Amino acid sequence: MAWVEKRRGGFRVRYRLDDGTIFTESGFATQDEAEDRAADVESDQRRRRFTDPRLAQTTIDEWIRAWSDAHHAADVTLATYDSHIRNHILPRWSGTALGDIARIEVKGWVNKKLRPNLADKTVRDILVLFSMILGEAVDEGLIGANPCRKLRISFDDRPERPHASADEVDALAGRMKPDEGLMTITDAYTGMRWGELAGLQWIRTYLDEDPRIEIDPNFGALHEIRGRLELGPPKTPASVRTIHLPPFLADLLRDHRERNPDGRFVFTGANGGLHRRSNFRRRVWLPALAGDESHGWAPLNQGMHFHDLRHTHETWLIEDGVPRILRLVRLGHKRKDTDDLYSHVTDVMVKSMLAALQRRWEQDGGWSWDETPGQEQDAA
């Protein structure tokens, strides 16, 4: 039972908790407001949806510690969560009781603090994480509702990413050292993710009569976790796949292996070190895009990211009429609709696709070791 009491300057609501304690909520300006709250309390108690308000005084810091201790995910995912919590969630909400986190304040934080300073994708990821943390607080009975629900935040549609032609890819590769040039060519003609390419090992690169790359389920991608590089699972279960290689690329990789017979990894930077994405971007990728007047190199597609080579590959597959199911499998995308689930990749599809990639290379590509610049670039 809940009841209303008039106090100096306003009204308060009092009700008895399950352990017999009488709890008081103060600060109601009018009797109507207090009676509405009392009615809500009684309704929730009857329906067994009532949350002990004392639990809502748990701070977000305390709850995040408990949540983190109980949560299980891949190391790279946990590292991302930790970064979002330390850099964005706790700087705003540290010390705040769970019950004091208001929906409208969350909306203001997202729109006024996060969105002006971060990419929409990053903001989405932070909001999803915050909602997951608070959603489990609801499940544990600490708060009655998730303040991240129904925020009605409209994110801008992501702009279409650029893609490159075969001769642009060829030109970019020609502005790099041989190893980085071949890495660029390989990505454009396979659509591999950065981590899959940077962590690719020779033991998973087969250059026999059926040349292919196998993405390992346990060690198929290179991850950077708190500054440390380590091999781990690829992005999703669908990422575990076989990537067939066109003949020209198999030939280039064979030549590359002969040049580096003792290496464990297919692509390495200075002194055999593994590539870090940020270093590769700064020291290799951006200079290649920017061009160099002394070499007669004009700027190329300067808004392009290395990841856009993956989009480039899919664009080429579409231009070549490659069936959707083969595109999904080759790129490691999850099958989403019924047609995808009941479609199958055949040898005929694969041979046709490889022939088209070979033709594209012969007509518009043609990068070779001799075209690469001689200057040293440290990318590791």
From TrEMBL:
<dbReference type="InterPro" id="IPR011010">
    <property type="entry name" value="DNA_brk_join_enz"/>
</dbReference>
<dbReference type="GO" id="GO:0015074">
    <property type="term" value="P:DNA integration"/>
</dbReference>
<keyword id="KW-0233">DNA recombination</keyword>
<dbReference type="InterPro" id="IPR010998">
    <property type="entry name" value="Integrase_recombinase_N"/>
</dbReference>
<dbReference type="InterPro" id="IPR050090">
    <property type="entry name" value="Tyrosine_recombinase_XerCD"/>
</dbReference>
<keyword id="KW-0238">DNA-binding</keyword>
<comment type="similarity">
    <text>Belongs to the 'phage' integrase family.</text>
</comment>
<dbReference type="InterPro" id="IPR002104">
    <property type="entry name" value="Integrase_catalytic"/>
</dbReference>
<dbReference type="GO" id="GO:0006310">
    <property type="term" value="P:DNA recombination"/>
</dbReference>
<dbReference type="GO" id="GO:0003677">
    <property type="term" value="F:DNA binding"/>
</dbReference>
<dbReference type="InterPro" id="IPR044068">
    <property type="entry name" value="CB"/>
</dbReference>
<protein>
    <submittedName>
        <fullName>Site-specific recombinase XerD</fullName>
    </submittedName>
</protein>
<dbReference type="InterPro" id="IPR013762">
    <property type="entry name" value="Integrase-like_cat_sf"/>
</dbReference>
<feature type="domain" description="Tyr recombinase">
    <location>
        <begin position="159"/>
        <end position="355"/>
    </location>
</feature>
<feature type="domain" description="Core-binding (CB)">
    <location>
        <begin position="58"/>
        <end position="138"/>
    </location>
</feature>
<dbReference type="Pfam" id="PF00589">
    <property type="entry name" value="Phage_integrase"/>
</dbReference>
